[in-house]
């Protein structure tokens, strides 16, 4: 059993439409804590900073969570990733253009944490849907 007074968080993104990691996606980390937070009416969100996914789709340098964190939010800025992917695809096959709209411009994932635990939260992403889970 861990005796740490904080939780830790990591993430990665897999673009399931191509079966490859999503490189270059900005990820922001925010935390909230305090009395009553576990019931949805805790303190304000505190922006902690962020990172960008590497060639393996991973953020290896997310900031540490402050002591007393009860909830974490990961904000993934996916619109620029899909816009670049779409622009690259249009250069390769101009006849396959669609409306150019990105259905999910961002993905926000909020989850509860307890001290001493590590939370790996992978994002499985495609242009028209996403899913997340607690990984290991």
Proper CATH architecture: Sandwich
Shape estimate: elongated
Number of strands: 10
Q: Give helix and strand order, one letter per element, not per position.
A: EEEEEEHEEEE
The structural class is mainly beta
Total domain count: 1
Q: What is the strand content?
A: 35-45%
Q: Helical region count?
A: 1
List key phrases describing it.
Immunoglobulin-like; mainly beta; Transthyretin/HIU_hydrolase_d; 4-stranded antiparallel β-sheet; 136 residues; 6-stranded mixed β-sheet; 1 helix
Describe how the helices and strands are arranged:
Layout (H helix, E strand, L loop, with lengths): L7 E8 L4 E2 L4 E8 L12 E7 L5 E2 L9 E9 L1 H14 L14 E6 L5 E3 L2 E4 L2 E4 L4
Parallel strand pairs: 1-8, 1-9
Antiparallel strand pairs: 1-2, 1-5, 3-4, 3-6, 6-7, 9-10
Question: Can you describe this structure?
Answer:
By secondary structure, the protein is mostly beta strands. It has a single domain, classed as Sandwich (Immunoglobulin-like). The protein has one helix and ten strands; from the N terminus they run ββββββαββββ. Strands 1, 2, 5, 8, 9 and 10 form a six-stranded mixed beta sheet that branches. A four-stranded antiparallel beta sheet has the order 4-3-6-7. Strand 9 and strand 10 form a beta hairpin. The longest helix is centred in the middle third of the chain and has 14 residues. The protein is elongated, with a radius of gyration of 17 Å. The two termini are 16 Å apart. About 4% of the residues have low confidence.
